[in-house]
Every structure is written in structure tokens, then in C-alpha cells.
């Protein structure tokens, strides 16, 4: 049986616009060295996302997701959920990116959004399963770059 495309007609015009904007801005499989502009940014990102299998930052208007070698399809789904929340913060609360190091600090947008994702992802995943959605993970072909933690000091 062929896979059917999701029925986008069920989405509001605003939701369709947000999805198109996120699609244009999402870079899944970015390189940390291309995103971080200084050592402080690298250290803050690694510290903030130390328990996650992805790192997320905004760089030049793109949502850049760096995957660790251990990242699974569920981690990719969680990263995209995180991107959606960052987009919501920008669009609805006016909270925009500054520098990676500032955004990682307490009260910064990455720190604040990661706390939200850690709290809510399992609930969203569960609710999606109840509604009949497949939440086993994101099926995507990210760029080949993965972060190997054995090289991080």
C-alpha cells in the first residue's frame, strides 16, 4: 500500500505558513564548526545539550541541528519538536536569537526552550500515539556530519 501524503488541508493558513518557514530554515545535520563562531559558543552549546543526542542553535537565520553519533530517529524527532518551539517563541513571543552563548545561559532562548522540550516532548509523543500518529522517530536523511563525543574535551 503506498504511503499517503498528510492532509495539509486540515491545517490553518498560519500553520501551513509556519511549516513552510521552518522547512526553509531547518538544517538537519549541521557541523558545529560552521555554527559556533567562537570557543565560548562551542562550550556553552556542549554544556547545555550534554544530556541530549543533538545540539541546536540558530545561525544566519537557519535552525541548525547537529546530531551526535548516538542520535536515533526519536532524537531527530525531538530536535524538530524543539525547532518548532523556537519558531513559536520567535513568532508569538518575539524572542529571537542572539549569540549561541547568550542563548544557552539561564533565561536564554535555547536554555528556556530546552527546559520546555524536556518537560513536554514525552507528553506530545504520547498524545500523538493516542491520536494514531507514528512517533517512532523522524525519518529523514540528515547531512552526514555527526558529533563524536570522544573528541570533545
Automatic annotation (TrEMBL):
Record-linked PANTHER family: PROTEIN ROOT UVB SENSITIVE 1, CHLOROPLASTIC, RUS1 FAMILY PROTEIN C16ORF58
Source organism of this protein record: Cucumis sativus (Cucumber)
InterPro entries on file: RUS_fam (IPR006968), UVB_sens_C (IPR055412)
Identification of the protein by name: Root UVB sensitive protein C-terminal domain-containing protein
Domain of life: Eukaryota
Pfam families on file: UVB_sens_C
Location of the Root UVB sensitive protein C-terminal domain: 24-136
